[in-house]
Predict the 3D structure of the following.
Amino acid sequence: MSETASNRTAGLPSFDLSDEQQEMLDLADRYSRNELYPLAERMDNEEWWPDDAFPKLGEMGFFGISVPEEYGGVGMDVFTSGLIVQAIARWNHALSLSWIAHENLCLNNIYRNANEDLRRRYLPGLCSGEKVGALGLTEPGAGSDALGSMRATAKRDGDHYVLNGSKLFITNGPIADVLLVYAKTDKDRGAKGISAFIVEKDFPGFEVAQKLTKMGFRGSQTADLGP
Ligand SMILES: Cc1cc2nc3c(=O)[nH]c(=O)nc-3n(C[C@H](O)[C@H](O)[C@H](O)COP(=O)(O)OP(=O)(O)OC[C@H]3O[C@@H](n4cnc5c(N)ncnc54)[C@H](O)[C@@H]3O)c2cc1C
């Protein structure tokens, strides 16, 4: 009997991966070694972004890991998504950072917190990798204390909100189609008066202020957003 099996029999916790999790890790590792590692040098040298990388990852089933199949996801769990990013990071660390911003900060966040209409509208495109996701929380002067020092505001105007403010260091910012952006709706409530808004790159007034040049993770695209 293996150690894991005997642990299970004795009612002790097992820290081994399930067969399904191990298969996903091996598949993601093989794919990343063959398909993503060859892109890494050019991404680092030129800050180049391979436009077809995300759609191919989506085709392989490496997005929407914790999202049910009815929204275009894989129907597994967040732990497994951690295994996939581990595999990607072994072979192309810049791509793994972009993967996290898309998969966890944006996609999984929308799945967990958005209403049904928004889930159905945004998750399929993010799960297939056709749309790139990002999350905008950090601001100039609001990094470690992002919630307390946030200056971006959102004001209701009829049936929609008008957002005002800037965001800083946003992973996938220059290439994102769907951005989850945090803004204060009620200044008097401090960190509790903040909401998240989905901003599409073509919404009126949205702009990428500049693409940033970095010392590391150079292939992962980073931007300042707003005026
Ligand atoms: C490559 C990259 C990608 C990023 N991607 C995203 C993204 O996708 N979305 C997003 O919203 N943000 C993103 N960020 C922003 C990131 O979350 C912030 O950089 C981080 O929160 C720290 O904020 P800051 O850079 O303003 O540093 P600061 O808050 O200015 O901190 C600078 C230093 O001071 C220290 N410090 C701060 N406050 C205190 C204190 N009270 N006491 C003692 N020490 C303190 C910190 O530990 C740190 O060492 C990204 C950043 C990088 C570098």
